[in-house]
Amino acid sequence: MAIAVERIQIPFRVALRKGVISWERLVQLLLVVGLLAAWEIAGRRLGDFFLAPPSSLWGATREMIASGELVSATLDSLESLAIGFGLCALVGIGLGYLMGWYKPVARVLNPFVSAAYVIPVAALVPVLIIWFGLGFQSRVLVVFLFAVFEVLVSTFTGVKNVDPMLIDVGRSFNAGRMQLFRKIVFFASLPYIFAGLRMGAARAIKGMVVAELLFAVTGLGGAIQTAANYYRTDKVFVYIIVISIIGIAMAAAIELVERLATPWRQERSS
Amino acid sequence: MARSGQAPPGMSRSEEAPMDHAVPARHKAPAAHDSELGGIRIHDLAQTYERVTTREIVRTHALRAVNLDIAPKEFICLIGPSGCGKTTILKIIAGLLRPTSGEVSVNGKRVTGPGTDRATVFQTPALMPWRSVVDNVVLALEFTGMPKAQRREQAIHYVDRVGLSEFYDHYPAELSGGMQQRVGIARALAIEPQVLLMDEPFGALDAITRGHMQSELLRIWEQEKKTVVFVTHSIDEALLLSDRIVVMKEGTVVTTVEVPIEQPRTRESLLEHKEAIELRRELIEML
Lengths: 270, 287
Hints:
The complex is a heterodimer. Chain A has helices at residues 12-18, 23-46, 57-67, 69-101, 103-118, 121-132, 136-160, 164-172, 177-188, 190-214, 219-229, 233-261. Chain A is mainly α.
């Protein structure tokens, strides 16, 4: 079955108007340039220790790479992030599935999840220090607690929102309950789970930095603290940029896994 | 044909509506001949939905006192306005819904749940978006427990049957509505059921595609003679497809009407066929 496809060139002016090169994009660009310029000017006036200008960051970065502090702080942070987020994915998805698939589990756990969801994790930090000390365990736990509910609630929602028609299809072909789960519910809920993982990843990074800033003076958060103590604002900014890059990289990695795991969702509008 | 339905043989039909569903003082299910599998008997079926609020119980009587016998290999259409209980009957036959009272038996065996002797084509195609055309059909075979080695071959056979040979590896989202519904039909045929249950399968399609699909279905039905229970609210569709039309209103069978025109019918021939014109007029009046 052949379907006619027609391509029509859009004149540049029209493209401009249609938003390919929109004035919104132009304003964005101007904003960034303006901000950097203002930062640069303010930085040079106020001096490095108060507000390092963007032009000084390159030098700072090279210095930090040479001394090894940048790499060691980053690796240190990534370790707690990876383990904390891995645990959170495991527990969040597992518990989310259990709650979504077995209604009694959901009825029992729902109020607890709702309650835990609203507690600010930062408020728990003092207790966590008492229980688990200032070390690695506590950091992993903070990362975990920051992110786990996003993943859990998304998974739960995903399982609950599986099209009941698809379940009926399975039932009508005599599928057992376990088959329904493995062959229908599991796949149908994947988009929700990945949405949860993306949100969870952002929260996990925040959790990681909070833990390092608040108690364990290690990793990127710790390094920021130290740099600030020495009035090295240039270093502070470099660390913040590194944290953003970790966030972008994690989001991209999750998107890549999602692409591989749900190939049917890309060909839609091609 | 020893048809044990309510409608008298030949072209006569029960003229007065309410009389008809009172008929069945049936004694025993006729033993199904081995060659004639797929007979359905619906006895005194009732379905009540209950909604309980704090102050009242709201009962909706979706079906009451439905009696119907469907002969093996018969093509039957359930027709009626929306909300008349057509889909409910279908779901009960499929074993997806437990009736409040009464019973349905297929081949003289009481229906207590879904089974591989029946297959449903749903209102929407209801395909798994993550599975290709062939794999959607394979899934049904996985559920029914066919050995792995035979599944793909069987699935391909029926995908070919509905004319989708070029689309084995396409995802449902890449297909048009009509093509998706073909996959739904292939999936139902693939488990080789005795009874095919079709719930307004072409309701969501445009008139042209719908016409093609009807002809296609007739062609397939000629090859794969099965008992078909087809829900529709289109009089023309019912006239084109069925041996017998069951007219429903407000949860019960008003009358059943034989369609005295031999298959193969076409939409064009029905336009001129005297009896078809007459029948259409009667049905329009009734509905």
